[in-house]
Amino acid sequence: MAESTIEWTELTWNPVTGCKKISPGCKFCYAEVMSRRLKAMRVGKYKDGFKIRIHPESLNIPFTWKKPKVVFVNSMSDLFHDEIPLDFIKAVFAVMNSTPQHTYQVLTKRSDRLLAIARELNWTQNIWMGVSVENEKYVHRVVELSQTPARTKFLSIEPLLGPIKSLPLNNIDWVIVGGESGHGARPVKFEWIDYIRQQCESLDVPFFFKQWGKPKFNNNPDDPTIDKEHPRHAKGGCELDGVIYRELPIAI
């Protein structure tokens, strides 16, 4: 368990680590870089770097939290990777089912496997299921997510790498959008973000704009949230036409 600086969660919990790249959004994978760093620091859990590993010893961690938490599950992996046994996925779900006081946010790029095994999992109210979508080519992930029994379904459109004009939001409860950050970050454009915002507004879907990624991508150089001292600071700033969008699907 670790405190998180991600704006839409509180903690991260990683019963699985490691992954493999499958689409353009993976190019500058934060988890891969962090895994190498943790391996160099001799953190035992990351002794194999970014190779896929399950950690049964981590399953009991949520039972130790004394207060309700909002938890990003597997920030350092993808729970629905083909190499992760179904029995272990079920074990992770069993922990989430048994700790209803916590809200769990699970995110995958492997929506095909998610859909294939979704009916074998127990989707309690506290499990939010999301998929990552970086451009128009991967909208099929949204369609597959919408067919699962997950009670709360969300999209992480980060990094947004191109315009998405055909975004099916009818069965989606929350949309997060963000630009790419870090060395070599690819640009994001205002019109790409604002189009998604308008689609969310028209369907009353909560919209969360996380960040521009870099100040040079931000169409407003005077955005006060670029300043690291600003209480709502995010990488590159996070205002959109002077508004900070931090909507959530339900009250937490």
UniProtKB/TrEMBL annotation:
<protein>
    <submittedName>
        <fullName>Phage Gp37/Gp68 family protein</fullName>
    </submittedName>
</protein>
<dbReference type="Pfam" id="PF07505">
    <property type="entry name" value="DUF5131"/>
</dbReference>
<dbReference type="InterPro" id="IPR011101">
    <property type="entry name" value="DUF5131"/>
</dbReference>
